[in-house]
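Obj.: predict assembly geometry.
Materials: sequence records (below).
Method: joint structure prediction, all chains together.
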Amino acid sequence: MIPLSWYLIFAAALFSIGLFGVLARKNAVAILLGVELMLNAVNVNLVAFWRYRAPNMIAGQAFAIMIFAVAAAEVAVGLSLFISIYRRRKTVVANEIDLMKW
Amino acid sequence: MPGDWLYIGLFLLIVAIFPGVPILIAAFLAPRKPHPLKNQTYECGIETHGDTWVQFKAQYYIFALVFLVFDVELVFLFPWAVAFNQLSLFGVAAGVIFVLILFVELMIAWRKGLLEWV
Amino acid sequence: MNDFLEFVKDPVNGIANWIFGLLTGWGMAPDLAGGLLKLVGAGVMCLFGLMLVIVLIWLERKLYARIQDRLGPNRVGWWGILQTFPDMVKIFTKEYITPKGADIVPYNLAPILAVSGVLAVWAVLPLSSTIYGADLNVGVLYIVGVGAIGSLGIILAGWASNNKYALVGAFRAVSQMVSYEVPMVLALLVPVLLARTMGVNSIVHAQSVWFILVAPLAALMFMLTSQAEVGRAPFDLLEAESEIVAGFQVEYSGLKFGMFFVGEFLHAFTISLLTATLFLGGWRGPWAQEWPILGVFYLFLKAAAVYFLVVLMRIALPRFRIDQMLNFNWKVLTPLALVVLMVTALVEKILFDANITLQSAPLGYVLVHLAINALIFAGYLWLALSNQKQREIPVVGKPRPTAVPPKP
Amino acid sequence: MTLLQFVFLVIAAVTLLSAALVVSSRNLVHAALWLIVSLFGVAVLYALLDAGFLAVVQVVVYIGAIAILFVLVVMLSPVAPKDNRSQVDARWWLPGVLSVLLFGGLVWMLSLWQGFTSEVPPVADANQLLVQLGSELVSPNAYVLPFELASVLLVAAMIGAIWVAWERK
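Observations (raw structure tokens):
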């Protein structure tokens, strides 16, 4: 059988890859892609902990579902901001969106 | 239950392979005579002008956005519908209020004119 | 003799058990033999689905021709029934033309996805009480999920072709397929609610009265929206020939184009099967429980009836404009579906508390639900018609006679 | 090695590989498509964890809606596909080192925990789980408040997002 550690190591790796994407990519959409990976890693952790540590309580699955909702909201707002910024400033590079940086 | 998921996994594998095989077979049967004119993009016979990936209306995006929100919320309702026999009146009401919020949301979007195709 | 009768009642499982016995008899581990059997079953199911398309294409061409007062295919085989085979030979020997600047991997992946997204639905379809692939307890959501993969294939096709028409087709596909998924999921929630389960086979088991009688509005909405998901007339905006050449498939040739074609026909029949399964009682019928092979016959009979309607809609109705299509979805179907879901849930709860269920008092149960559905529909019609009067249609240009007699 | 372990390793490898391609490919559409592969792998892992409902929800929500939204936005902005400049920062090694450190630290910390290698306990029938989930989501003693709040949150997000993205004339 698969031990819990495999899932946890997998989730940690996925989270780290997502973090790299968020920190290193220039494009704003690519940063959002990285955030999606990180959220998924968290979800894998939640479900794995539910399955291995508390299979009688449904909390892990319920939390995972809430994260789906949060991820959807985040994507909706983030991509809208991206479209709006692109329309005004004709750029997608996060470093060049510096109107608030003085 | 794991048996069912095994079947689904096998089925998805087969489903990906089956349409691919005839395409590959046809690649061997078919003639291959490429020609620069033949491989041009077909746009009503005239030569293609400008780049394909031009900017499109954000309207398409807005409909996809409304869909995303609806889709996520509707998925929440499936376990509610399955557990219907075990629910108290409060539980059923909670689900109905959930749908009502969706309905109000749709009405807001409608009244603000967000659902118009312009 | 008795064994033979058992075999005739359920030949599929009979053969499966025979092979299983044979394999384990040769010393194969039961797990491995079971897995192998599942693989073979999945393969046979897929092959059956794809072979069915050969018949469907002929059937649809024949129907099309009859309605347009033509004969249709009538040369190859009896009534042209073998017409599809020469067509297959032809399409197999057509050259693949890959347009300049296409994104190769997504371009080649798209036709495969378009077929597999449809074919994957067959994994959870129960053909009869004992002949089914997987009785997944989340079957209905699974159907919605694999449908999304199909629309992904179309988006990929449009994007990867490096063609403006294809890209417009892909955008239309997104706005159409994605929009119509909302009322479709809502309509699917109603049978799930009535049967208290998401398993497709369990929903069939729960239909001691066909759900079309309990939830006629949901059934109607499911039929309409799944027609839009297929993307055929009157919802064929994504491949409208007269507007955007052929939409997302304009740059495809040979069998890659053929796969989109196969996917479309298979999808049309699959939604008929789904409608029959979820709303028309699936394999249920006289003696279907004792004679599982009869269930397959009943299911396909019902599906054929629905398919006839689907084809009729395609032939008889003109294409929507894109704003009409979206208005119909967001301003007609979705609010109606939301109201139907809310009211059905409340009524169901009241009836359940009063101990009136499909099992205990079928007649009263069905009548109450029918009355509620009729009430919602009447109220909706009244609202729609009273709003109709206030709306005025903007005049784009004055009509003028095409031929004006010359002034003397 | 059992069949399940083999399936897990293959799926994990595919998922991590495509995740790496998500953060490294130059063409944004390709990055979004790799994201779909990665999300599908995660869905398979949910199925392996006996969370069948979450597996299909992952496909419906992430692949059917979120990923399509991503692909659509990338297609809407014309610069993305033909921008062949490097898509990562000049100082990409700094986040790289940080990520590797984070991964190492997480694994090290988890390995100190005695539950790290727990074996899988038996779980209730899948249908029962679904019923339990459904009734707890709307039960006043459990998650009814987050349930309704999620709905309100999504409404607010949708209206805000449309307001931001709307093309004003």
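Conclusions so far: The interface with chain D takes residues 103, 106, 136-138, 141-142, 144-149, 151-152, 155-156, 159, 167, 170-171, 174, 178, 181, 197-199 of chain C (CB under 8 Å).
To do: check interface contacts against the pulldown list.
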